[in-house]
Write a structure and sequence with these properties.
Layout lengths: L8 H7 L7 E7 L4 E6 L4 E6 L6 E7 L2 E5 L2 H8 L9 E3 L5 E8 L13 H8 L9 H9 L13 E3 L22 E7 L3 E7 L15 E6 L6
Antiparallel strand pairs: 1-11, 2-10, 3-9, 3-11, 4-5, 4-8, 4-10, 6-7, 7-9
Length: 225
């Protein structure tokens, strides 16, 4: 566990603004890193962009039934919109809420582009890119101790990723708009396992061509939660 002690004070002040409860844990995910965390119902996970323009590929599972996992398709269908932000839910394949989006200082995230993986890297950048670090391998690695295989890894909620959709349906990954200290709060609607890949992609604009750090903060549930 790594605290925020050595991060610029102004960034920390932004990252820890309007805290939703008592702080239980802080952690820095290094560039290209990955982590899985368990949340109790009512606890909040804050994902912080510490250096700006860094994407977090995030997936979620019902901790009491790991076959029930996050579905971007269901989440979009139930909202009727591809833009998920404050007040919206990350739903499971069974249309049950896993996480609710709380305070969101960016409001620009993605549910369309999926994760970078060996196959996409090979297709886009050639055979030499197939074995570079990627989000799908990262997510599979942290979920393996739970018995979840790479084939069972769902498509993610891409926190801070910027994928605008044009009128003709064209999409393109462009640089994120998140700044150092920006964050989004995710509130557990049930006991969950959340896995995050600190996106390693440096061959396109996804992370502004440079993988940097992410911060995590876990907050206790409110007494009424």
């Amino acid at each position: 566990m790594t605290s925020f002690d050595r991060i610029d004070e102004a960034i920390v002040a932004r990252a820890l603004a309007q805290e939703p409860g008592s702080r239980l844990r802080t952690q820095i995910i290094p560039p290209q890193g990955r982590v899985a965390v368990e949340l109790e119902k009512g606890q909040t996970l804050r994902v912080v962009d510490l250096d700006g323009q860094q994407v977090a590929d995030l997936i979620c599972f019902n901790r009491d039934d790991l076959a029930e996992k996050f579905s971007p398709n269901v989440s979009v269908m139930l909202k009727g919109n591809i833009h998920l932000t404050t007040g919206d839910y990350l739903y499971s394949v069974d249309a049950r809420p896993l996480l609710r989006i709380g305070h969101d200082t960016v409001g620009c995230h993605d549910v369309l582009a999926g994760s970078c993986c060996r196959g996409l890297n090979r297709f886009r950048y050639g055979p030499e890119a197939e074995h570079q670090p990627n989000c799908r391998d990262n997510l599979a690695a942290v979920m393996a101790p739970y018995g979840v295989t790479i084939r069972e890894i769902p498509y993610p909620f891409n926190v801070f990723m910027n994928v605008p959709v044009e009128a003709d349906g064209h999409i393109e990954v462009i640089e994120p708009v998140s700044k150092p200290g920006d964050f989004v709060d995710l509130i557990a609607e049930r006991n969950v396992v959340v896995a995050i890949s600190n996106c390693p992609q440096e061959r396109n604009e996804c992370n502004g061509f440079a993988a940097t750090r992410l911060g995590l903060v876990i907050y206790a549930a409110e007494a009424s939660a």
